[in-house]
Amino acid sequence: MSAPHTDHSPHPTQDSSIHDVPANAAEIASHAVEYLKVGAALLVLTGVTVGLSYVDFGSRSMNIVVGMIVATIKAGLVAAIFMHLKGEKITIWRFLVMTGIFAAGLFFLTYLAHSDPISGTFHATH
After folding, report:
1. Has residue 57 been placed in a domain?
2. pTM (predicted TM-score)
3. Domain that holds residue 57
4. C-alpha distance from residue 27 to each of 39, 48, 54, 60, 67 (Å)
5. How many structural domains comprise the chain?
6. pLDDT, tens digit (0-9, with 9 covering 90-100), for 40-94
7. Residue from 83, 51, 82 nearest 67 by CA
8. 45 and 96 within one domain
């Protein structure tokens, strides 16, 4: 009979550097505290959004702009912390910025179409 395997070296798939697992409890706790702070900030900003919905900023367009600013801040927090973009490489940020620019362009085109619709109707002739 052969002796049981007694090598206690970690298996390569269990190496913490492969899976980017925090090394100790203090690091895990710091991540948890960061998540709780961001969660609290999101709750506060949701309250701000509700409060701002009762404020008239002069026009419907300005009300939408103020709401979108608060929503952008909340989306930025979610993306940076919960989606772990805060520690990503610059290439990911470049793609994110370009996506934002194209999305803003689409919003602008929608705004242009809404503010200056095509007048009249199209009549087909036979």
Report:
1. yes
2. 0.57
3. 24-84
4. 18, 31, 42, 46, 35
5. 2
6. 999 999 999 999 989 999 988 888 889 889 998 998 888 888 887 777 778 887 8
7. 51
8. no
